[in-house]
Amino acid sequence: MRTLYVVTHPEATHHVGGLVGGWFDSVLTPAGELAAGRIARALRSKIPATAEVQLFSSDLRRTVQTAGKIAEEFGVSPVLDSRLREKSYGEADGRPQQWLDERFIPPPATGDRLNHDEGVAGAETKADFAKRIYEATETILAGSAEHQIVVTHGFAQQFIVTAWIKMPIESLGFVNFRAPSGSVTTLREDDFFHNRQVAALGDMSHHVTLDQ
């Protein structure tokens, strides 16, 4: 049985600063670093010590830091992949969230939502964003390990989920599988039917159980 654990990085400086994340290269806050350690220990408790583990991560610092905590627990080196980055908001990246909010054009209720222009120069369309996440997921799933860990971002993780269940990109216009920062989504494929399951979406229980 293959199990894929999709980790969204915990609290980063752009969160507390009210800034747009995207490709802005923020770092974990002290609280985020503690949360990353909890995530790493929770994953270690779920995966047998003898199991082969592969670790993949977005190459932005906040995800690399999170992956570093996991790497320490498992004794592996993360494979960094820029395709696992968050959606780019173009010239809004790193600016105050209010700056983006004042310029953002929401997608229409009907019609072509995937190629919608959000009104911000350089921002990725949903179609372009999904395509690179799908390509990265395909690379990850070409690996042989039964346990794979992917460290990414909140918006990006939903397209790993849809790629996992083989949802066509053209069907993603209305999809929203939200998961909070610092969460773990667990995806499983059985060896007999090869069905792909979303076993847990955005699980945050590790933040409670490991502090008790």
Number of domains: 1
Taken from the alpha-carbon principal axes, the silhouette is globular
Determine the strand fraction and express it as a percent band. 15-25%
Q: What is the CATH topology assignment? A: Rossmann fold
Which key features would you list for this structure?
Rossmann fold; six-stranded mixed beta sheet; 212 residues; alpha/beta
How are the SSEs placed, and which strands pair?
Elements: E1 2-8, H1 13-16, H2 30-46, E2 53-57, H3 61-74, E3 79-80, H4 97-103, H5 126-141, E4 147-152, H6 154-164, E5 184-189, E6 196-203, H7 206-209
Parallel strand pairs: 1-4, 2-3, 2-4
Antiparallel strand pairs: 1-5, 5-6
Helix pairs in contact: 2-3, 5-6
Describe the structure concisely.
The protein has 7 helices and 6 strands, in the order E-H-H-E-H-E-H-H-E-H-E-E-H. The protein is α/β, with parallel strands linked by helices and 212 residues long. It has one domain (2-209): Phosphoglycerate mutase-like (Rossmann fold, 3-Layer(aba) Sandwich), CATH 3.40.50.
Outline the structure in words.
The protein is of the alpha/beta class. The radius of gyration is 17 Å and the shape is globular. A 6-stranded mixed beta sheet has the order 3-2-4-1-5-6, with helices on both faces. The chain contains 7 helices and 6 strands; from the N terminus they run E-H-H-E-H-E-H-H-E-H-E-E-H. Strand 2, helix 3 and strand 3 form a beta-alpha-beta unit. The chain has a single domain, classed as Phosphoglycerate mutase-like (Rossmann fold), CATH 3.40.50.1240. The model has no long low-confidence stretch (mean pLDDT 96). Helix 2 packs parallel to helix 3 and helix 5 packs across helix 6. The two termini are 31 Å apart.
